Amino acid sequence: MFNDKILNCRDCGRDFEFSASEQEFYAEKGFTNEPGRCPECRAAKKAQTRNQGGGGYGRQEREMFPAVCATCGIETTVPFQPSGDKPVYCRECFQPRSRNNY
Ligand SMILES: [Zn+2]
Ligand SMILES: [Zn+2]
């Protein structure tokens, strides 16, 4: 059985609760390490790494090609060579949902 534990966040230094149900969850996943960060810092860290992707194209910077968005007409860059027979979209038009999913 698990008991609630108080751990210390290595990022902000605050104490946080590692609850019995979380410990159970960790054990189920096969994690042997206790979390080193409080839930706030973990969430912040996650959000940070997600934003670094630059729109979901992956971590590595790819060569970008200039293009004009077929929807709004602004100049943009796309990670592939526009062929001319397919419309290209700027980031905003290409992923209209990502702004609402926040
Ligand atoms: Zn923290
Ligand atoms: Zn656009």
UniProtKB/TrEMBL annotation:
Q: Which Pfam family, just one, is annotated for this protein?
A: zf_Tbcl_2
The CxxC-x17-CxxC domain is annotated at 62-97
Q: Where is the Probable zinc-binding domain?
A: 4-49
**Annotated NCBIfam families:** cxxc_cxxc_Mbark (TIGR04272)
Q: What is this protein called in UniProt?
A: Zinc-binding protein
Q: Which organism is it from?
A: Desulfosporosinus fructosivorans
